[in-house]
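Let's do one together. I've listed all components of the complex below, 1546 residues spread over two lines.
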Amino acid sequence: MKNLVNIYITLFITCVYANNTKNFMTLKDSIKHKNLIQFVNPFIGTKNMGHTFPGATTPFGMVQLSPETNQQPMFIDGKYNPDTYKYCAGYQYDDSTIFGFSHTHFSGTGHSDLGDFLIMPTTGKLNLEPGNANIPQSGYHSQFLHKNEFAEPGFYKVELDDYNILAELTASDRVGFHQYTFPKSEDSHIILDLISNIYNYEDKNVWTFVRVENDSLITGYRQTNGWARTKKVFFAMQFSKPFKSYGHKKYDNVQYNGFYRRFNEEENFPEMAGKNIRAYFNFDTVENEQIKIKFALSNTSAAGALKNLDAEIPHWDFNKTKLETQQKWNDELNKIVVETETKAEKETFYTALYHTMLSPIIYEDVDGAYRGLDQNIHQSEGFTNYTIFSLWDTYRALHPLFNIIQPARNNDMVKSMVAHHNQSVHKMLPIWSHYANENWCMVGYHSVTVIADAIAKETTNVDLNQALKACENTANVSYFDGIGDYINLGFVPEDKSSSSVSKTLEYAFDDWCIAQIAKKAKNETVFNTFLNRSKNYKNVYDKGIGYMRPKLSDGTWRKDFDPIDTHGQGFIEGNALNYGLYVPHEIDNMIAMMGGKDKFSNHLDYIFNTEIEDKYIEKNEDITRDGIIGNYVHGNEPGHHIPYLYNWTNHPYKTQERVRMIMNTMYSNGEDGLCGNDDAGQMSAWYVFSALGFYPVTPASNDYAIGSPMIKNAQINLENGKTIFINTVNQSSKNVFVKKIEVNGKSINNYLLNYNAIKNGGTITFYMASTPK
Amino acid sequence: MKNLVNIYITLFITCVYANNTKNFMTLKDSIKHKNLIQFVNPFIGTKNMGHTFPGATTPFGMVQLSPETNQQPMFIDGKYNPDTYKYCAGYQYDDSTIFGFSHTHFSGTGHSDLGDFLIMPTTGKLNLEPGNANIPQSGYHSQFLHKNEFAEPGFYKVELDDYNILAELTASDRVGFHQYTFPKSEDSHIILDLISNIYNYEDKNVWTFVRVENDSLITGYRQTNGWARTKKVFFAMQFSKPFKSYGHKKYDNVQYNGFYRRFNEEENFPEMAGKNIRAYFNFDTVENEQIKIKFALSNTSAAGALKNLDAEIPHWDFNKTKLETQQKWNDELNKIVVETETKAEKETFYTALYHTMLSPIIYEDVDGAYRGLDQNIHQSEGFTNYTIFSLWDTYRALHPLFNIIQPARNNDMVKSMVAHHNQSVHKMLPIWSHYANENWCMVGYHSVTVIADAIAKETTNVDLNQALKACENTANVSYFDGIGDYINLGFVPEDKSSSSVSKTLEYAFDDWCIAQIAKKAKNETVFNTFLNRSKNYKNVYDKGIGYMRPKLSDGTWRKDFDPIDTHGQGFIEGNALNYGLYVPHEIDNMIAMMGGKDKFSNHLDYIFNTEIEDKYIEKNEDITRDGIIGNYVHGNEPGHHIPYLYNWTNHPYKTQERVRMIMNTMYSNGEDGLCGNDDAGQMSAWYVFSALGFYPVTPASNDYAIGSPMIKNAQINLENGKTIFINTVNQSSKNVFVKKIEVNGKSINNYLLNYNAIKNGGTITFYMASTPK
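Okay, and this is what the predicted structure of the assembly comes out as:
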């Protein structure tokens, strides 16, 4: 199969060369590209809690078409169903059933939503009930075997054993392309389950509206009330073949139905509306007949979906779309060409790189129309609008990575954030936003960091003053998450707002980022205000015990306090031990405050070397023993900079040792290759950076912390046409220590790589050794 | 008060003359206008089942801002609450409570919906419960007295006794303007009840989304699932004064609320969303302080509502808007200037004329954007989009009246219907449509009649072939209401589709109308097809019993049959006795078929002279003894042409006698002045025509049937600048018989007035007498 892909790509280039002058430059360039999609295994992270999905999508695509292997209700008898969490991305590798293929997914998140528009092909007597995954033939779901399943970027296929149907999926940016190969049957069906949701519960579906426009075209929308409170997704669904009949079943308790009672609405009636609807379309099929479906999404209207459909896939050539999409992936993956010791490492690396390009996603129609936070339809002027901003996670390494390999998209994302601010009734930048909604998840206002990082790296042309104003506004919304008290008291008081230490630390760093923007904008007042605020981390440090600690609004420390417990101790997804080290803008000062370099180094050793007690693990569903080294929890982002902090002590070699250890033990090319949620690409971005030998400990600064590269060598092809070459000397799995680093031929000694040294290309050479320098 | 209005109008004209050149021509013209709004009593029809509303609106305005005097649940313990029906328009004159003022209403319909965005001003301890109308102070509702209530076109006011608040309402086309005069209070409130609906029941509210944009501007929308299945109304609500605080209460059973739990959403939090929400805004008020609210609607978006707000009322001058709107009304009312014997007759006449201009309503934003039937946003190109088409009622006389006094608007309505067809997944013209939904109410496809009438009268520039195609498509939707069988068998079989005789008769007439369009379009094939179909009325006439009668699909007559019962006998809102006379396109043939002129005249006598048995009345909520003459039921439209049918017999004088009798007994200037639902203006249009002395028995023909005028004389000011003068000689309440009719000086003897004789103006003179000719 892999060889076939190479042939296809060559063929495709030839075809497109002839037909598409607009894309010519890109494709000509790509002729020299390597086939790197072969090293991507979309199944990595689908086992345990990686929360990735194996389905088909373009880079940053709006449609992410992927199988659902179960349908879990979020509540059973009014109680939260703990199995919900496993299905954040809809797919669990250990399952042996497929319930269908839906068009929207999060990649790696630790909370969920989406799963819109589930399609399932079946044969035999129509069964509209999904059934129980544990009971074969109990519903429309099908058994499948992994040996009959295959996934690569932009393509997924599986044999549905219950129906003898081969399902193949690909996608363009806004259109899912399904290809189902049926057996001979007079009872072939395509089910469109409009009830199915990820994180599903009664009343999640607010409204569904479906029109059967003709014998092969369906349009409509669904509104849900989930993590995104007011979420609307519109669609246009085109069949390659007219159905012979169709219908739907409504599962609502309808008290009043106007005058629709004069029709038999359930069969062959082209209008369906309600809260909970399953539709079906019936076909006769001959042996091996393929029924194809193009399923376009829009966030503005059904008309928008039709526009997207017509613009992106005006044909029925499944392979053409698949190859176009795979070409896009290859173009993106070729932005970093690496050589590694082992194929496994290469697969781990490229899958991580792949996982950094599954969100944020494009969130506008082909003509630039999109639904804004105010639920009005806006037009993106001068940018492409994006959504899914898991910012508490992704500001750390994902957006900094984008500033190197996706600066144009990151600029679009920055502008999308400013647009969000402009549409926000709070005048706030995104916190955790998706699908024209703010879901308020996690702490901090980290859009400001993303913007500041892009401004620092000079990868954005956002209006500086407008961006600064948006950041200021965001940081001053007094009713949000303790900000009012934070401004007044210099810290978030735990008795007023929980996770108060995490909030104080994140706000302080965010404030430093705002100060950096103000500096660029030459706005001294704002600079001073926010630089002052950025010192607030000091106010939650309890010198007496040597830990960051929750403080109360009367200024006293909270009495009950356990620096290791991750719940109710002033931290979120962390504790005083690890999250308490989060002062990325003043690391030296923090270390001094905490007793100096050696004491701090010892503290880091303590984190990595002290076995965590079981009682602390059981409480947190994100953490398994696999994702832990001592008390270091790689699955949670507040730790991500910690292994690099040794650089600020007298023991940088410990950074080198630890990051290699983490890469080796916390990542692999197996389905269980992620030790925790990928968190919208942050975990993978950590890996990509670390594998290349450096990491953005302080986003919005120009410094990266040096680690220990996993790769043998790498070539980073920048969008400005320049290239960064990363070479290693004496690289091996044993030689994890960095003896010397040369940047553009000059040795550096402070373990900091400056952005300016590489932004227009350059060469970094790591001299590796088996013992510390 | 009436005199004051005159002064205002003069003042207003002077003001606008100075400020507004665009409207200058209209206003200059209007200087010579009489003040006719003084003769309109918006309370006519608010008692019993007229289903009119007394609130403020412009002619055909999108906002119809009117008090709700009760809040009835549509179902109590799962059973239909019979009091629901009384509140089709929200207001019942016998009530003594006001629950608030909402922005959308039907006028005169026999089924309901709307009542969007109820606003209630209160003082004292905030109470968000509406309370029980029978228990004073049991909720936010207030007692009121009719002596403290006043209504005229474009203006309504009432004292709210419980709060000592004077409420005044006016409106522009798309904006409701509230003016509340408060007492001194530190506890003044404006409640925005987003749960309240006309025809309300659990789950009617699908979704509500509200943003508090700043301290005085609210935007949002509500989606309901009612008679209009997928109805969205957007709003922008601007206060004249900042509120001091605000909040909302959500009445949903929320199983899952994302991460909003980190806020106190209920107080001063600017985003509200859910199914059932009541919001409130708190103020301090000094004695007699006025708080004004401009409340704009849109059917496209909150942005659209803001656009409408800014365009239509860019100021806070309540009187200015009131006077502008009253000027519009005066302009419209002056289209027919009548003199009558009594002031009461003039009030009855002008209120009827007023009631013909409350629907259809404008249904687009100021920039022409509107929500189509497909739920996409469309742009009206070359027309203004209208909604609320109660066509089974209004094709009879309302649209024919529009062809005389509102040809431009009627042309817009025709084009709105064609746009509806183009957006319809069924490719059908409206049946009974409102707010971007088809509610499928009543029988027939009467858009075709409206279109054919406009084409016959040459008042539309709709594309003839496009219109014809839309009519053909509509008449051939085989799954709609027996059309398939009707086409195949020549009649609708009762065993397949109830009300089969009504359907057959209405379809036959509609088909004749389509044939008339085909004739104009010179499409012989379509003409022949539909002319043939128009003969289908013959197929449901049972010669054996001399009645139209339900036939079964095997061709036999249904055995059980009662020609007087109005339920389950093949008719709807009628019976064989009256609805069985509905062949308006072939009256002579029908009469011949039924035994000739004298037999037919006797049949008409029988209808009017035979007391209906009580058992037939009790079944029908539309009919009261007041609306009945013998077996003639004026409250139901199938009878509307019946008094005029004597013209086709040897006893036209009986038409004259009957129509005067009906005008005198079924209409008055009291609150109970309508004997049944006004039916979106059809009952009133019947009156306007009849009062002028003629009636469109056969819409889409050029003939009107002569009746007996009520007016002394009338001047109809046509939009083309020409005038029709209607004079009477010897008019009196006794002289109901028409001795002679002269049209443009020539006597006519066939009791038919030809449209061509008056379309460019003319003079009709009725010579009246106390005895038949």
